[in-house]
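Bug #77: duplicate submission created two jobs. Keeping one. Sequence:
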Amino acid sequence: MASAEVVVSSGGAKFRQTVFDAVVFAYLAIFAVVVVYRPSEEQMLKLGENASLFGAFVVIGAILSVVLQHKNIKTLGWMIYAPPHLKQRSQDELVAPMHKTLWGVQLILSVVVTTVVGFVMTKIDVLQLLEAERFWHAMRLFGELASPNLEILPKAVLKIIETIYIAFMATAIAVPIAFVLSFLMARNIMGSSRVGFGIYFALRTIFNVSRSIEPVLWAIIFSIWATFGPFAGMLALTVHSIASLAKQYSEYVESVEDGPIEGIESTGAGRLQTVWFAVVPQVVLPYISYTVYRWDTNVRMATILGFVGGGGIGTMLMEYQGQAKWPEVGCIILVIATVVWIMDTFSAHVRAAIK
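Kept job's structure:
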């Protein structure tokens, strides 16, 4: 039985290694094509042709990966996905200088290519920062922000309190939902049957899509659905928090020790009892720690949602910023910074206390 599990594990690792190496090869190959042929923007926009080209490189990369596996040549995919028992046997081979190994060259090239592409895509131009006129305009704006108009302080305080409660309610509603769903999204809990794995895969997919939609977009949707105001902001943060918390919680569940689980199962306990008595005690403290951190994060995100109708101090900030009233904006920034500092200090003390 143990031997069969090793074979299955090795087979899965080889598949993941092949896919990873294929994508890395395609990534580097596409970069080389762009550097050599320098396609125009019109050519870059031909998504169908470019996707086909990338797919062809992926296939070639997969073939190369399989050939290298048969020749026992270590690739970057092998370094990441090879089973521990295989890596243990190859420790002597891994002490070679990185630049003299295939996996090392792959890693170095990937980092260099990604850095170069990032430099080009972000259009970095340090000379713009050195232009005198731009610099003095920025300094004038900074000077106005650094001279806050405290006449609006009472209103700003009321709005930041509203923001804190938007974040609190979103977190409070999200936590119990994410708590339950996290066990359904943990592979070690749901992966023992086809039905369980189907539920696991479906929830992972749904929440990956949900997390990819930023809270600002959710706020726009709920502003139209539930009208503008703090309720829309709270709903936006709730949806995003459920997805984020459930994913983070599930990763804690997947990292629990197997010993307590096996001990509880040996007593004849059912699945639910095993989860409650063997898994929950191991994850409750990390859950609390991350929940406090999430509330802290939600407070900061709630300040941005006001720009799209999500209520709170962000609405006030948008109002004064739109009128170019920079001293008033400076006062709002001062209030936000103070609250963020207080929340950060509070969450740090709570996380330290429960470790």
